[in-house]
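Consider the tokenized backbone below.
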């Protein structure tokens, strides 16, 4: 499939869609591509990401369902 053919297919699907979540997702992807400047993290952000990476490596993670249940419990307090 050529680039031109792909563009036409995408335009057709987008124009026919009423799926707001999908359209917002596409919009977000396009926006990311347009804003391709490099974001520089500050020291606290780097530390937080490094800690998150360590937690993932050590298996200190929750499933989506577990995190959802924890959030529900916090809301009850």
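A designed sequence for it:
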């Amino acid at each position: 499939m050529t680039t031109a053919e792909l563009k036409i297919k995408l335009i057709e699907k987008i124009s026919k869609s009423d799926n707001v979540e999908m359209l917002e997702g596409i919009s977000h992807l396009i926006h990311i591509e347009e804003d391709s400047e490099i974001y520089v993290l500050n020291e606290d952000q780097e530390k937080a990401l490094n800690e998150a990476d360590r937690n993932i490596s050590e298996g200190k993670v929750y499933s989506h369902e577990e995190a959802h249940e924890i959030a529900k419990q916090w809301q009850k307090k």
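The chain has a mean pLDDT of 89.
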